[in-house]
Amino acid sequence: GGVTTIDPGYKNTGSCESGITFLDGEKGILRYRGYSIEELAEKADFLEVAYLLIFGELPTTEQLDTFHSDIKKHAVVDDDVKKILDAFPKTAHPMGVLSSLTSALTAFNPTSVNVDSEEEMYNAIVRILGKFPVLVAWTMRKVKGLPLDYGDSSLGYVENILKMMFKQPNEEYTQNPILVNALDKLLILHADHEQNCSTSTVRIVGSSHAGLFASLSAGISALWGPLHGGANQAVLEMLEAIKEDGGDTKKYMGKAKDKEDPFRLMGFGHRVYKNFDPRAKIIKVAADEVLGDLGIEDPILEIAKGLEQEALNDDYFVKRKLYPNVDFYSGIIYRGMGIPTEMFTVMFALGRLPGWISQWREMRLRKEPIGRPRQVYVGENHRPFVDINKR
Ligand code: CMC
Fold first, then answer.
1. Is 93 a catalytic residue?
2. How far is CA 201 from CA 166, 298, 372, in A?
C-alpha cells in the first residue's frame, strides 16, 4: 500500500531526531548545542563554534589547538584542482565553481570517500575544513582576476581565510581586526540552522553513504537557490535596483504584495521564524558597526532600513508574519568588506560548512536509514502501448 497524504515542502514533517541546533520560530530563539546564538556571536570564535557543533561540547584550549593543527595540515589542494579552476570561464557563478571543486576533491582524496569509523570521519572532516577555505578564497580571486594565494599557517582560521582572499600580489598583507571580527561573527551566525533545504540535502545524500565531500557538494547546490542562501545576493541586487530607481521603496513593496507579480521582497520571510530572525537582529547592529568602523557610508544601508520599516508596518507583511531574515543585512557587510556580490552565497557556504558536517556526522553515527520519501501517484492509469505510427 502507498501513502495517501503528502506534505509539500515538508512543512510539517520531522525527518530526524537531532541534538545540534534548537530553533523556536515563534519566539525567535536559536541555540547551537544549547548555547544562545547571541552569546556565541559575542564570545566565541568561528573555529570554536565549528568544534562545538561537530563534537557537541565547547573545546578546551588543548582540544582547539589539536583541532586547528589537524586542519592546517590539510590547508592545501592538489595542483590539478587549480587546473580545473582555470578551466572555468571567468563569468562562471562562484557557487557552481565551488560545488564542482568540492566534488572534485573526492578524486584527490579517495580515503575520504568510504568513511565509516569515527576516526575516518574525523580525518575527512579536518581535510575539508582545511581545503574548503582555500577553494572559497580561490573562487573569489578568480572573480577578481587575482593570482591564487595559499594561506599562512601561523594565522588564526578566519584571519587566514581573509589573507587568502585579499592578499594583493607584491604587497605585504596586514590584518584588519575589524574585518576579522565581522567575518567571525557572520560565519558563526550562519554555522547551522537545523533541517533547512541544504542541510536536509546533505543528510539525504549522505544517507546513501555517498562520501562527505559529495554530500557537501550537493548541499552547496541546494544553498545556491535564491529562496535559500542565494537570497543574500538577491537582496543586494534588489537594493541596487531600488537605488537605481531613485530609491522608490514603495514601488517594490507594491510589487512584493502583488500576487500577479513573481517579485518577492528578498531577505524577508522564513519557513520557521514567524518572529524576528535572531540572526538578522545581530547582523543589523553589526552592519552599522562595521560600516562605521570602516568609514563607509553606503546609501544601500539606508534603503534597507527604510524598506524594513515599511514592511514591519505593512498589513500584508504583518498578517503573514514576514520579518527580515539572516540574508537581509549580511550582504551590506560583505560589500563593505570588499567582497563581490556574486560571492555572497559562497560566504554563506563557508559559514554553513561546520553545520553540514555536524549534521552529516550525526546522521551517520545514529545509523539513520537511507532517506527515501514516498509519493501519491496522480498519473495515468494502466493503458495499452500505442505503436509509433499510430500516435
Ligand atoms: N515577499 C512577499 N511575500 C512573501 C514573501 C516575501 N519575501 N515571503 C513569503 N511571502 C508570502 C507568500 O506569498 C505567502 O502568501 P499567501 O499566504 O498569500 O500565499 C505567504 O507569505 C507565506 O509564504 P510561503 O511562500 O508559503 O512560505 P514558505 O515557508 O514556503 O517560504 C521563504 C519561505 C523563505 C522561501 C519565503 O519567505 C521567501 O521566498 N522569501 C524570500 C527569499 C529569502 O529571503 N530567502 C531566505 C530565507 S532565510 C535563510 C536562508 O534559507 O537562506
1. no
2. 31, 36, 12
